[in-house]
Amino acid sequence: MTRIDFHIGVNHRVHYACRVIRKARATQRRAVVYTTQADRLAQFDSALWTFSALDFVPHVYAGSPFAATTPVILAPDAGCAPDSDVLLTLDDEAPPDFETFFARYERVIEVVSCDDDDRQRARVRFKTYRDRGFQPTAIEVKNGD
Q1: Number of Cα atoms under 13 Å in the Cβ half of residue 13
Q2: How far is residue 56's CA from residue 6's CA, in Å, rounded to a whole number?
């Protein structure tokens, strides 16, 4: 079964997500970053270029001619997201048909900020996943980093 981890209490959701993806790449894992929010996905794309002066994380949007050979794919909808090792979701809602979508990944990571509204939406997703037979885990991030 797919492992689902909620990383809770981060100060900067997008910056933290960049670090998670960098760590996945360090272990040679392929990753998909998913959100239906175009502005958030664009912000994440930009952050991957600037979050670290010493690291480059190769990434492209789903549908790019280079997607088959690029280790990190940015996906604005579940239908265009390729199978991979890790799915990092930055969306505020559970993806449609998430049971089938999540089955294509070994691990799903949800990044949740300190914002009360974000935490409340994460609680709803956590309960939804649990009610459908998954066993999500909550990981409180130390110092919000």
Answers
A1: 23
A2: 25
